[in-house]
Amino acid sequence: MTTSAESTVDGLDLPALHGFLQANVPSYSGELRAELLQGGKSNLTYLLTDGRSRWVLRRPPLGGLAPSAHDMHREYRAVAALSGSGVPVARAVAFGDDTVFGVPFSIVDYVEGTVIRTRGQLHALPQQQITGCAYALIETLAGLHQVDIDAVGLAGFGRPHGYLERQVLRWHDQWQRVRTRELPDIDRLYARLGERCPQESGTSIVHGDYRIDNAILDPADPTRVRALVDWEMATVGDPLADLGLHLVYSDPAFEPVLAGSAASTSDRIPPPADLAQRYAIRSGRDLSRLPFYLALGYFKIAVIAEGIHARHQQGLTRGAGFDTVGEAVAPLAANGLRSLTTTP
Questions:
Q1: What does CATH list as the number for 5-109?
Q2: How far apart are CA 230 and CA 66, in angstroms?
């Protein structure tokens, strides 16, 4: 194994990982190098290489405060199941449990492509490609929601009945775990979601964090999605929860979570109403209760942002761009309440 600066990558035990790769990846040559990839605000993401092949390793954040939101085995199982389904994903390579270096982790093939994280990156594209990319993401989401759960081996992956009620309760529980302050709008939003929780609109695989920077795009044609990534919150549940969250990511209130320049908030992306209409046409689903799903999305992002903020305060984040995340929590909660004023 390489013995240089790459041998001391924060968050990885490279000697242990070297042994794991030797035992579980037949093509591994033994010359391991690793580096932390930028852009992740949740699980830590690393590029691994042996000089011939490249892989991506994902592990939970340091000092994880919300374990159900960082489920590596869930992520690996979803990606492995979706291979060959028509949903673009990286090839699953290996899953390691916490006996290797203390935390579970997943390894997939590295997918060459473009990840658009900032408005500057997005605005470097012509408007036609920006619009095409936004619609391609909606088409891909609708396609994910049409996958036959039993056919890909994900029966039992989640509990679809009562999914929405459990989501409301789960994210409130996470808030209790990670909060660093009192925010009355979070409590109000939780109460309102509980009061207005509908029956599920249907059942599908749910990505759980669907946005533009969780997609790898074809460098030659950004209207083609090469792989969807970051599946740690995937489950079987209500597909409109994915749509609502995707639309909420367009709100400028989300910008501080990605250091103030989130591509998803660009006004050059078609407006949420247009994207929702595109999804309705592609999926055939009834969107009359969309305001609830938007509010749930706001609630979820606010709690996730508070968790990131809490880890940053404790010195447990790695990389840049974490110092603004806490600024997003109160506006997101307020906008979640505002979305519920729309009559479904």
A1: 3.30.200.20
A2: 16
